[in-house]
Specification:
The protein is mainly alpha-helical. It contains ten helices and four strands, in the order αβααβααββααααα. It is 43% helix and 3% strand. The strands form two sheets. The chain has a two-stranded antiparallel sheet. The chain has a two-stranded antiparallel ribbon with strand order 3-4.
Length: 309
């Protein structure tokens, strides 16, 4: 099932990559990728590799023997604000990995003409990703001829930001994708959830929000330290793990026996038990995501090098 190229169940190997969280990296690598685990057989081909935001691996994985295309950072940052605005109006914008790659590799300064298959593919991709509607007249992509912007700092065209800045950009992409994927998985897996019931959906969102640092669910900000599911402090991290556990308790299907424990019992786990539980929660999440969507989950990462617990 895994397409040729990078194994997306393994951590990215690059100085630009955010740092792995051991429990989540291990959970992703432990996923049973047997077709029998899939809840929909179509996930083996139709929906494989759809992402609301670009997969960070696109930016730092060599393609066809070439160097890693880190230069994709610039077109992504030129699109970023417009794409976030589109998501506020059109929640379902998951796009194939190939469409993202085609967009990021396209020369946006080149004429739109040409009748080759490649030219048509680029035009179709641009039409799909760049909004043409009057509803977006107030926000446009950053001009390709001027500087591009990240965190209010401008960078000249064709010049890569420093390594640490690229790591921030890729960390944000992981976080944004993880949030979207968690919500999508919860909508699919939560037993007796009526997606037409606004009150139920708000209740689920409230539960999911508790898995993240305050205000980081709706508006991801670049942190000054590892926090939430990535926190260096086990106590801080485990509060988010418990919140995720409470979300997953209501999911369909077989669950680890320990999921029958009460929140109070989980809260009182020893350090060793808490670390083991973190591993179990991450592994269960990664497996369930594969079961429903047929690909590797986008998992949380650390922005800063981690310290031992």
């Amino acid at each position: 099932m895994q397409p040729t190229g990078r194994n997306k169940f393994l951590p990215l190997d690059s100085p630009f990559a955010p740092f792995s969280i051991p429990a989540w990296s291990a959970g992703l690598q432990a996923v049973d990728q047997s077709p029998s685990r899939l809840l929909e057989a179509s996930k083996t081909f139709i929906h494989y590799g759809h992402y609301t935001f670009p997969d960070p691996g696109l930016f730092i994985t060599p393609v066809a023997g070439k160097k890693a295309p880190v230069q994709y950072i610039e077109p992504w940052l030129r699109l970023r604000d417009t794409w976030l605005m589109r998501l506020a109006k059109e929640p379902s914008l998951a796009t194939s990995n190939q469409h993202w790659r085609t967009f990021l590799a396209a020369n946006l300064k080149a004429p739109a003409g040409g009748q080759t298959k490649a030219a048509k593919r680029i035009r179709d991709t641009l039409d799909l990703i760049i909004p043409q509607s009057d509803a977006y007249s107030g926000v446009k992509m950053q001009q390709s001829s001027g500087p591009f912007v990240w965190q209010d700092k401008e960078y000249p065209p064709g010049v890569l930001p420093p390594e640490g800045v690229i790591r921030e950009i890729l960390w944000e992409l992981y976080e944004l994708n993880f949030i979207r994927e968690l919500v999508s998985l919860d909508h699919r897996a939560c037993a007796e959830l009526d997606l037409s019931d606004t009150a139920q959906l708000l209740d689920r969102q409230t539960k999911i929000t508790k898995c993240f640092p305050i205000e980081s669910f709706q508006h991801v900000t670049i942190p000054s330290r590892n926090c939430g599911l990535a926190a260096d402090d086990l106590g801080e991290r485990f509060a988010c793990i418990r919140a995720l556990f409470l979300v997953m308790k209501s999911w369909r299907g077989d669950q680890p026996k320990i999921f029958e424990a009460s929140e109070e019992n989980v809260r009182n786990f020893s350090k060793q038990a808490a670390l083991a539980f973190e591993n179990l929660v991450a592994k269960y999440y990664c497996q369930q995501f594969f079961n429903y969507f047929g690909r590797a989950a986008q998992i949380p990462h650390c922005l800063f090098a981690t310290k031992d617990d």
